[in-house]
Design goal:
single chain; Calcium-transporting ATPase, cytoplasmic domain N; about 50% helix; alpha/beta; 3 domains; Rossmann fold
Length: about 375
């Protein structure tokens, strides 16, 4: 099961909490660059940066809206956004993407950059780098909060035999911290649409059934490739068209209930089929010797139930069959109770309960009805 980190494992509203300027850059300059690159950004992160720099550093919307600025929206390929103004590129985004941008323009990187990024990552935050032309301005600390009940849900997934993989655009250090705190089995950091697709295809090649939740346009190819793709109702049209199903409540963790209901349906169908087959085998083994014992006396040892006559044997089987169908209707409507177990323990439990039960119940039921019919004079 592939789960997007933001909004699924975490609350999704990453908030700017700290500015870490590079050497030779004042915190005011970093605040200005971060605000200008985010002023037209409608993502929660972009809005939180604007709110942070205007509240803490006294900047205003008029200050951040530079004349002639051209906004560059975020792209899953470039992993950055910002604006171009007076020939100057102001960008914010993933640290490695901004580093490549700065170096491609001939700029240098701060010596303590790795230390600052690692400190944020170890705290479970997301570092967002900011550049202005070829100048590396600094890092914004985005604070994220893990959902309170998410670890319990992953425990339930694990008990069901489902492996969970967190998908995030964060750097590996931040991803590892959040994955450890949330309790997921694995993670894919710095994820791009191509890497998501490659991961799904690799798991499918191993014979695994892959499910994925997503809401963005960049999730659409992976949602289409996955065996089960659940798109959020609040997501883009491309994501909703690519998925197999749409969650109207836009709750990605609802996939847990989807899997449980699906498994319960399969278990109920399997249990009823197993019981019916076992019931038929036992039923005919019980009544056939009594039916043909008059013609073939040699099969008398097979009449282990000692049914009174062919007539009562057939009548007992018909009555038993009518009663057992009525008794199975509530089970078919309510369904077999699902327990979060692996496939092998579930199979053993169902075979023991409904397979063995289907063999034993007909012998007891038909014999009891036969005794009752004889007592009533049939």
């Amino acid at each position: 099961l592939l789960l997007d980190k933001t909004g699924t494992i975490t609350l999704g509203n990453r908030m700017a909490s700290e500015l870490l300027p590079a050497a030779g850059v004042t915190v005011g300059e970093l605040a200005m660059a971060a605000g200008v690159s985010s002023v037209a950004d409608e993502t929660p992160e972009g809005r939180s940066i604007v709110e942070f720099v205007t509240t803490k550093y006294g900047l205003t919307d008029q200050t951040l809206h530079l004349p002639g600025a051209h906004f560059i929206p975020f792209s899953a390929h470039t992993r950055m956004s910002g604006c171009d103004v007076d020939g100057l590129n102001i960008r914010k985004g993933a640290v490695d993407a901004i580093c490549q941008q700065v170096q491609s323009l001939g700029g240098d990187l701060p010596a303590n950059l790795e230390e600052a990024v690692n400190r944020i990552g170890d705290a479970g935050g997301t570092p967002l780098a900011v550049s202005q032309g070829s100048r590396f301005m600094g890092v914004v600390h985005l604070k994220d909060v893990i959902k309170a009940d998410i670890r319990e849900r992953f425990v339930r997934f694990r008990a069901m035999g489902i492996r969970t993989v967190m998908i995030t655009g964060d750097n590996p250090r931040t991803a590892a911290t959040i994955a450890r705190e949330a309790g997921v089995d694995d993670f894919l950091a710095e994820a791009t649409p191509e890497r998501k697709m490659r991961l799904i295809m690799e798991e499918q090649a191993k014979g695994k059934v892959v499910a994925m939740t997503g809401d963005g346009t960049n999730d659409a190819p992976a949602l289409a490739q996955a065996d089960v793709g659940m798109a959020m109702n609040t997501g883009t049209q491309a994501a909703k068209e690519a998925g197999n199903m749409i969650d109207l409540d836009s709750d990605p963790t609802k996939l847990l209930e989807v899997v449980e209901v699906g498994k319960q349906l399969l278990m109920t169908r399997g249990a009823l089929t197993t019981f019916s087959i076992a019931n038929d085998v036992a039923k005919y083994f019980a009544i056939l010797p009594a039916m043909f014992i008059a013609v073939y006396p040699e099969i008398a040892p097979l009449n282990i139930m000692g049914l009174a006559s062919p007539r009562t044997a057939i009548l007992s089987a018909v009555i038993f069959n009518a009663l057992i169908i009525v008794l199975l209707i509530p089970l078919a409507l309510k369904g077999v109770r699902y327990r979060p177990l692996g496939a092998a323990p579930l199979l053993r439990r169902l075979l023991l309960l409904y397979g063995l039960g289907g063999l034993v119940v007909p012998f007891l039921g038909i014999k009891a009805i036969d005794v009752l019919l004889c007592a009533l004079g049939f």
